[in-house]
Amino acid sequence: MKTFFTLCFLLMPTSWIWAQTSISGKVTDTKKEALAGASVYLKGTYDGATTDGDGNFKLITDEKDTATLVVSFIGYENSEQKLQLGKPITLTIVLAESKNATLNEVVITAGVFEASDEKRTTILKPLDIVTTAGAGADIFRALQSLPGTSQVGEQEGLFVRGGSGTETKAVIDGLIVQNPFFSSVPNVAQRGRFSPFQFKGTAFSTGGYSAQYGQALSSVLVLNSNDLPEKSQINGGINFASVYGGYTQRWEKTSLDFNGSYFNVGPILFNLNSQNIEWHKAPQGYSFASNFRKQTSATGMLKVYANLAGNTLGLTAPDETTDSGKSTFGLKNQNFYSNVSYTEAFDKGKLYIGFSQSFNKDDLKLDTADASRGDSRTQGRIMFTRDFTNDVAVSVGTELHTYEYKNQFDEYKTSFRDVYWANFLETDVHITHKLVGRAGIRNEYSQVIHRWNVAPRLSLAYKTSDYSQISLAYGQFYQNPNQLYLYINKKLDFEKAEHFILNYQRIRNDRTFRVEAYYKSYSQLVREFMDEPFDANAYRFPYGRTDNSGGGYAQGFDVFFRDRKTFKNSEYWISYSYLDTKRLFANYLAKVMPSFASTHNFSVLYKRYFSKINLQANASYTYSSGRPYYNPNEQEFMSAHTPAYHNLSMSFNYLTSIGGNFTVIYAEVSNVLGTQNVFGYRYSADGKNRIPTSPPTYRSVFLGVNITIDKLKKSKS
């Protein structure tokens, strides 16, 4: 829970900043036609605006000396110009139509939609994430407001289109993250480890993704880290749960930063927010991180990132298998992650080299038993991309991973080591001006199971008008069995999924509409065969016979609409997903909808900027239909359903200045109505006693302050 509250901060809307210099003007095309919805911002800052229906814009900034104004719009070349700040500035900016404004380069504020994985990918900027009410500045929680996801509050993971949490992989700068979440705790969905402000954008693929990625049956979350910061600065803050601080030093072509935090959730939050969990040790911990950036040439960049963290907690959890109905759980976690990447562009080509290491160890106390679990991963990746003609580009790459898992319960120890090797080749072709295709193939080898696979990927997109397009995608995806199964059976095969996707999107006047239908076929899923009754505990250790005879399907459609045009200083988006899925896997007794899936998921987000009072207000509402759960008193397996999930959350960010330094005071109320959501039920062996699985708290209130000190500002004489 390290980042539990470390970055609900920096919540800076793009329509106001402490008054110093006023910048206004108009944006048009070469025919002098106004461009409505163009993005206007100062490079390296959060100061920006969007043009109105007449192409006009206005922003106010407290930046000093000089700044670079950037103007961008879909289908047009970006405009950048250096400004001398201090006095009011009025500009007329003319954008030229992009020479490469082809289908696979369509870009919108909410995301990028291309002729393959990115075609169905939604990119969220850091501010989109931290201003999503109820998400608590957590990347994974914010993504649950997008179509294709399910609301699962009792275990960590991103559950996409009927897939389990382990079927989604997080990737940072091209490299898989071994432990993107904090360590598992019974009936508590853990947060992601990384701050959204570490990344330029967050790309979420709901399926049919590129051959560049593997080991994910459902989806990938691609995170690309920041380049050089704009300037040196000091940042710090305090809230109900943590204190944190950071220092960034920027030289001409190099930067170095250090960040540290300490959190203790108990002292204030436990008293302020009623708990459904009996804690005997409040979650607390620390983290230290550092980033190094070096611009090695005009087109080259070296990035080095390292993070060390630790945390402890203890709780008493409901347990229907014990006489007391309870069991104790204690956790002490240590985690280290490092990532190094180098990119260099050449004439018509680009080289990427990446390397990462990670280490994670959990010392557990389960009642009177001592247990531990740990893992480590080392990986390297090389990729080269080249444009052979204006219409054909080819990417080729290879990656190698070595990882190890260990598990212990008292005297019982298990472990295994794997070497995973993958190669991929992908070609992008502009078949005509309106038709774009991508074909790729990926092959993988896993030493622990001594298996190879070959996975083809194919996608096409056709431009139906100046503002819309339709696309098709097909792909095969493989994933190693869960490590718990590999402890006991190393003769298993890869699990497999096939994706079929049809997508339509329309982007115009700063409005985005997308609808997507899909069918996903599962095969070779691992099944367990046990002599004892079904055990619904998601944290159990399997011990029966296993094979790859499982399978299933997921089908449905997603709808997404985002509007930044209709209401002044406001934006909203609406998501809806319909899911029909069944699978036979794990220790399930029949092919049924799994307990982590729900048929209907709906969410609405609204954000409003009140520039006169320097306040941003955000609200979100999420609905999810009931999820299946196992009731031993029912004749039909997994036929019972939980009540529907409802959550209305709000957050507020007040912008001010303390000592001339930009300051944000932020507050959030999650589940304002205090709806008593239930994620499932557990039964005693005789089926007479039932224990609900509830969130840690029904309603939570949070408050904090963040201050940014620009160390380059000149002191007043």
From TrEMBL:
Primary localisation category: membrane
Signal peptide limits: 1-19
Subcellular location: Cell outer membrane
Domain of life (superkingdom): Bacteria
Assigned keywords, A-Z: Cell outer membrane, Membrane, Receptor, Signal
Gene3D superfamilies in alphabetical order: Carboxypeptidase-like, regulatory domain (2.60.40.1120), TonB-dependent receptor, beta-barrel domain (2.40.170.20)
Keyword Membrane: yes
Taxonomic classification: Bacteria, Pseudomonadati, Bacteroidota, Cytophagia, Cytophagales
Name the UniProt record assigns to this protein: TonB-dependent receptor
